[in-house]
Give the backbone structure.
Amino acid sequence: MPQSNARGSEAQAKAAAIAKAKAIAPDLTARIGSTPKTKFRGDPDVFGRLVEDHDRHRALLAMIEETQGASADRRKLFDELVHELKAHAAAEEQALWSSVLRDPATTDFARHAIAEHKEIDDMLADLAARDMSSSGWLRRFAGLKEEYLHHIREEEQEQFVAAEARLSERDLLHMRNVFEERKKAEKASVQIERKIKLKA
Ligand SMILES: [Fe+2]
Ligand SMILES: [Fe+2]
């Protein structure tokens, strides 16, 4: 594919992902700015699909920061973020990390990504349990945003790269289908946990 077309499809993939987030609160802007470099955006295999979700999540995180107090938009967007992040992480573990974990050459990469999923889960439960209208909520939310952006940048630049080198093209295409199926099922059954887990 000529480079300009490749760049065009990357931009299209990013715009489509942002549009999905925007549908939740159309009046807010979703300024995600420039995203860290990745070679996977727009790819037809599992990695392109995962980056599509990551861009959608980047947009949701940016939009929540635009909301005020305990507004309807903040509630709706945070609810969607929790559903998205939990379903994405579970489906990613089932479709990708379980295989990557089994291969001794990449065990540590999978373990790293899965450990961060647990940390993010705890941060989500903690935020869900706290008063959304307090100024402390947005400060804590900024901590989650930083942690999550770090997680997906590392996946795109380190763990996906290591996994790709060990998996066949056929595996990667199959994993996209598994991810697609599992993400839908997981999203439909997400339970929002509300529990203070972090210190004041
Ligand atoms: Fe992840
Ligand atoms: Fe991910």
